[in-house]
């Protein structure tokens, strides 16, 4: 069957102002996984990435008319709500018989609402979709009902929205084929500034699920942690090096060091295969899941940088968001990582529930005291499906369900924040985000480090572009 997957454009708010310059053009790996699986089993699936290919609705219209697709799948993050709807309407206008399927983080927590409210969307997939989509294709081919397909919401023959039983998570991740990057025009992609040293730098995902319970995380419903075998990780890395010229790999797993023995084995295999001499890599993880020994091994295997989810410098707030780490663990992780010779990056959040202005400022100062090579300050944005969202609805602190505005870079947007803790204001927090960035980056120490750390021209160019974009965005004062 001929199937098209579409990644909507991210052309809204922050991305227009700052994201276009320093933000990512990121491989839509979710779609690559699903399309590769379908093709592996003999179907004809392709991908249109509106964001990275710079496609307008008119371009998509042309493509749809020429392609005559029987099914169209559209990826949906919460912030992409309106754009997904526009695309679904377009597909139906061109051919009302095309089955429109949505999936991704937003439908996974709002499937029924979407099916009830959006007539142009036929099916919403909940959770992982590689095998769910295979079942859907088979049902369409055999003209069967979707009633027996687990893990979806759809409109039945009577026009009612129904949800089928939950689908079990894919236990053996190696059973999913290695994502076929030939489905993308790989030269278009690059991570955002803090994620690479040398291009091409491409994304690899080696695991799914997380047993932790952070109240802000919209992946908490995927509790069971699963991972690819180290052999499979090496095979995928080799594919990127040999067939796509990768100079770097960005492991975008939520927690790359979740299982210590696995991480050690991957590192040892990278060294045994000599891959550490061909590429470098970076990853993301939690501060409580690193040790100095492990970090030294990671460095030896080519790891140059680690992004840590720090979130706050205040223990009360860390506990409240169920982060399950201590301030001491945070300090140790940064100390050890630097000691191992790996660059550090800190993800920070401001405007958490119950956070006071003093505590926001404390977090900004804490980030500076950790002295990471980069820090990101985003505004706390409770996403649907999270514990934080449910609580904020109860307390009346959720100011909007305009899904398009659910951006963690709200400080650079024209709209008010969707979530404002009691006693704070949207403007105060927006200004604080800009203040945090300015006060972190425009310190002589940081500027000096960036200048001495530049090892090639593209890096210099990216720092200058980033600084200019930041300056343009942070001219306002951190006034209330
Ligand atoms: C890489 C990444 C990015 C990349 C690329 C995003 C992209 N276009 O794919 C970049 C850096 C651009 C990015 C940006 C943002 N991201 Co992001 N990102 C991720 C990350 C770390 C990995 C995504 C991934 O590839 N996963 C691997 C694939 C295999 O898993 P998956 O995406 O869940 O896909 C499976 C299912 O969901 C489903 N599925 C997914 N898409 C589709 C489509 C169809 C048609 C079907 C049927 C099924 C389906 O099937 C897939 C295969 O099983 C996730 C965290 C995570 N662990 O997933 C966050 C995550 C997706 N991001 C998130 C957020 C909040 C953002 C931002 C909004 C942050 C911001 N700046 O404000 C921006 C959005 C930008 C914008 N304006 O739209 C949230 C989404 C929450 C939500 N409800 O929308 C996540 C879940 C993080 C989190 N834990 O909260 N992100
Ligand atoms: S934020 Fe990270 S550690 Fe916390 S639940 Fe989500 S994936 Fe797990």
Question: Which key features would you list for this structure?
Answer:
480 residues, alpha/beta, Rossmann fold, pyruvate-formate lyase- activating enzyme, 2 domains, seven-stranded mixed beta sheet, six-stranded parallel beta sheet, binds cobalamin, binds iron/sulfur cluster
Describe the structure.
- This protein is of the alpha/beta class and 480 residues long.
- The chain folds into 2 domains: 2-163, Response regulator (Rossmann fold), CATH 3.40.50.2300; 190-473, Alpha-Beta Horseshoe (pyruvate-formate lyase- activating enzyme), CATH 3.80.30.
- Helices cover 41% and strands 15% of the residues.
- The protein contains 17 helices and 15 strands.
- The chain has a 7-stranded mixed sheet, with helices on both faces.
- Strand 11, helix 9 and strand 12 form a beta-alpha-beta unit.
- Helix 1 (14-22) runs antiparallel to helix 17 (457-473) and helix 9 (260-272) packs parallel to helix 10 (292-300).
- It is globular, with a radius of gyration of 22 Å.
- Bound molecules: cobalamin (B12) and iron/sulfur cluster (SF4).
- The site of iron/sulfur cluster has 10 residues, from loops.
| Number of E strands | 15
Query: What is the CATH class name of the largest domain?
Result: Alpha Beta
Largest sheet: 7 strands, mixed
Strand content: 15-25%
Q: Give me the oligomer status.
A: single chain
CATH topology (level 3) name of the largest domain: pyruvate-formate lyase- activating enzyme
- Looking at this structure, what is the CATH superfamily of the largest domain? tm_1862 like domain
Shape, please?
globular
Please list the strands of the largest sheet in the order they lie side by side.
Answer: 2-1-3-4-5-6-7
Average predicted confidence as pLDDT: 92
Structural class: alpha/beta
Question: How many domains, in number, for the residues?
Answer: 2
Between the first and last Cα atoms, what is the distance in angstroms? 57 Å
């Amino acid at each position: 069957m001929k199937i098209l997957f579409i990644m909507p454009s991210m052309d809204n708010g922050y991305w227009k102002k700052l994201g276009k310059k320093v933000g990512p053009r990121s491989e839509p790996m979710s779609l690559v996984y699903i399309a590769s699986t379908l093709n592996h089993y003999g179907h004809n699936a392709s991908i249109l990435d509106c964001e990275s290919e710079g496609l307008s609705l008119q371009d998509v219209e042309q493509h749809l008319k020429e392609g005559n697709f029987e099914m169209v799948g559209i990826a949906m993050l919460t912030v992409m709500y309106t754009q997904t709807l526009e695309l679904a309407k377009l597909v139906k206008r061109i051919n009302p018989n095309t089955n429109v399927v949505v999936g991704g983080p937003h439908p996974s927590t709002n499937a029924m609402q979407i099916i009830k409210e959006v007539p142009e969307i036929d099916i919403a997939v909940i959770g992982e979709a590689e095998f769910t989509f295979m079942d859907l294709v088979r049902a369409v081919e055999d003209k069967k009902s979707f009633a027996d397909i687990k893990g979806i919401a759809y409109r039945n023959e009577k026009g009612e929205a129904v949800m089928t039983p939950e689908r079990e998570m894919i236990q053996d991740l190696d059973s999913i084929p290695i994502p076929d990057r030939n489905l993308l025009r790989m030269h278009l992609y690059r991570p955002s500034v803090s994620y690479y040293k040398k291009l091409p730098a491409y994304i690899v995902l080696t695991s799914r699920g997380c047993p932790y319970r952070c109240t802000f995380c919209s992946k908490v419903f995927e509790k069971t942690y699963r991972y690819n075998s180290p052999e499979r990780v090496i095979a995928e890395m080799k594919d990127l090096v040999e067939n796509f010229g990768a100079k770097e790999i960005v492991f975008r797993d939520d927690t790359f060091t979740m299982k210590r023995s696995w991480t050690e084995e991957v590192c040892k295999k990278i060294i045994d295969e000599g891959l550490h001499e061909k590429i470098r890599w970076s990853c993301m993880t939690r501060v409580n899941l690193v040790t100095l020994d492990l970090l030294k091994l990671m460095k030896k295997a080519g790891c140059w940088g680690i992004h840590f989810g720090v979130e706050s410098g205040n223990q009360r707030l860390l506990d409240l968001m169920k982060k399950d780490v201590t301030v001491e663990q945070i300090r140790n992780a940064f100390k050890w990582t630097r000691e191992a010779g790996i660059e550090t990056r800190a993800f920070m959040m401001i405007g958490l529930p119950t956070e006071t202005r003093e505590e926001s400022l404390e977090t900004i100062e804490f980030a500076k005291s950790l002295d990471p090579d980069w820090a990101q300050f985003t505004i706390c944005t409770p996403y649907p499906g999270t514990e934080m969202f449910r609580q904020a609805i109860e307390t009346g602190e959720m100011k909007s369900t305009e899904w398009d505005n659910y951006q963690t870079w709200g400080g650079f947007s024209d709209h008010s924040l969707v979530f404002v803790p009691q006693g704070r204001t949207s403007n105060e927090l927006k200004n604080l985000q800009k203040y945090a960035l300015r006060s972190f980056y425009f310190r002589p120490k940081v500027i000096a480090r960036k200048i001495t750390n530049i090892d090639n021209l593209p890096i210099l160019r990216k720092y200058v572009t980033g600084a200019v974009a930041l300056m343009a965005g942070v001219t306002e004062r951190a006034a209330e």
